[in-house]
Amino acid sequence: MAMDFASTLFPSVHVSKAIQEEIPHNRPLGKKIMIVDDDDDFRMLLCHRLERKGIKCFEAENGEVAKSQLKKTHVDLVITDYRMPKIDGLELIEWLHNNQEHVPIIFVSGDLSFPIREKAAQARVCAVFSKPCSLSDISYKAEEILGKL
Asked: Is the backbone peptide bond immediately before 11 cis, with ω within 30 degrees of 0?
């Protein structure tokens, strides 16, 4: 049985067997995702998982860097953390809605208090994940969203 790389580094992350299995149809090859998170390990592991599935990933450690990259590069999906230095996830989402309004967004945060959940819902994000969360679940949701584009 192959050991999941994320589970080795993040033992609290649950990886379901059904999600680990390859999805042979509707693979979102050639799609591009921007992963925005100040946690280098989280970004790297999620990027690695998605790139194994044929998805091109761009990484940014905060909203400011993401905005700079997004001005030059079109992506099909943004996965963003909430709490980051300089520009947080909600500010980035607001900027996206004003500049690239049709880009779907997955919101991830360790602080999903009611006010934050409400703001994410008002921002029309496609999915919300609470940290610590399963990289497999985020990857699966990203593939699902990209498969519909």
From this structure: no
pLDDT tops 80 at residue 36: yes
Question: How far is Cα 148 from Cα 14, in angstroms, rounded to an integer?
Answer: 26
C-alpha span between 143 and 61 (Å, rounded): 22
Name the token pair of 107.
């919101």
> Which domains are present in the chain?
29-147 (3.40.50.2300)
Sign of CA dihedral 7, 63, 75, 105: positive
pLDDT of residue 17: 41
Nearest-CA neighbor of 106 among 84, 75, 80? 80
Report pLDDT for 28.
Answer: 58
Which contiguous run of DSSP H or E holds residue 95?
A: helix 89-99
CA dist 38 and 63 (Å) reads 9
pLDDT in tens, 74-98: 999 999 999 999 999 999 999 999 9
Q: How far apart, in whole angstroms, are the C-alpha atoms of residue 107 and residue 56?
A: 19
**Greatest CA separation found in the chain?**
46
